[in-house]
Amino acid sequence: MPTFTAPDGTRLAYRVEGGGDPVVCVPGGPVGSAYLGDLGGLSAHRRLIALDLRGTGGSAVPEDTSSYRCDRLVEDVEALRGHLGAARIDLLAHSAGANPAMQYAARYPDRVRRLALITPGTRAVGIDISGETRRELARLREGEPWFPAAFAALEAISEGRDGDPEALSPFFHGRWDAAARRHHAASRPHNAEAVRLFGAEGAFDPQATRAALAVCGTPTLLLAGEFDVNSPPRSVAECAGLFPDATLVVQRGAGHYPWLDDAARFVATTAAFLQ
Questions:
Q1: Residue 247 bridge partners (DSSP)
Q2: DSSP characters for the chain?
Q3: What is the pLDDT of residue 186?
Q4: Is the bond preceding 27 in cis, omega lying within 30 degrees of 0?
Q5: Is the separation of the CB atoms in 28 and 78 below 8 Å?
Q6: I want to staple 58 with a disulfide (CB 3.0 to 4.6 A). Which of 1, 94, 136, 249 is the partner?
Q7: Domain 3-126+192-274 falls in which CATH fold?
Q8: Cα 142–145–147 angle (5° rounding)?
Q9: Tell me, what's the pLDDT at 39?
Q10: What is the pLDDT of residues 72-124, one digit of tens each?
Q11: Is there a contact between 168 and 157 (Cβ–Cβ < 8 Å)?
């Protein structure tokens, strides 16, 4: 895998898929980028530069583990832009990766040509998701065989009681089939410290980020999955309202990984936006 050096000296790795103009891709987790694959075939349209976040995938564990904090990951993205020799980048981020991506757009607005936020996390802009919002969305899946156990776990976790997070897995996919199970196993974070410190104190300044995004003219796609309890369409729509030039798309039948649930629809939407 190709590598580059972050400002603190940590060696970071990235994958390259496809050809054409590059799109820098920031995974969620924090986890390596392997679970993104080629984003359902988006690599047929653009060259995907998929970053392995520090301490994940092929990237090194930093000496200073406080650098796992979300706001500090922004400079890793900036270092990758410099490494690629690009004055401006198209930036795509999934799930929790949307948080450093939004902070990057707020900090370096002139260096982002287009921003695509796929089923985005919204902690960086202070959008909270209530347990009732998640439960209301989850009830749309009531007819599925796995629903009773999954919904019981969701209720327990939402109410602060013990619940098995793994039981929630079907809610993250439009279809809970063999392909979804394999993908779920491949997308689990393995660096518990990186996960724990991602949102450490000081990681987010929602008021400042919102203010910066309000004057950021970057065209921004926010793509939600119809059934995604992690990033509900209602919350993604609220996030879209923070951008002056936002396109909101709710992909029907999709969960948290829309390129897996309907690759053709996801690629058509995302490739058209990135043109």
A1: 221
A2: --EEE-TTS-EEEEEEES-SSEEEEE-STT--GGGGTTGGGGGGTSEEEEE--TTSTTSPPPSSGGGGSHHHHHHHHHHHHHHHT-SSEEEEEEGGGHHHHHHHHHH-GGGEEEEEEES---GGGT----HHHHHHHHGGGTTSTTHHHHHHHHHHHHTTS---GGGGGGGGSSS-SHHHHHHHHHTS---HHHHHHHT-TTS--HHHHHHHHHT----EEEEEETT-SSS-HHHHHHHHTTSTTEEEEEETT--S-HHHH-HHHHHHHHHHHH-
A3: 79
A4: no
A5: no
A6: 1
A7: Rossmann fold (3.40.50)
A8: 45
A9: 98
A10: 999 999 999 999 999 999 999 999 999 999 999 999 999 999 999 999 999 99
A11: yes
Sole residue written with tokens 């020799």: 85
Structure tokens of 76?
């890793």
Query: What tokens does 179 get?
Result: 């392909």
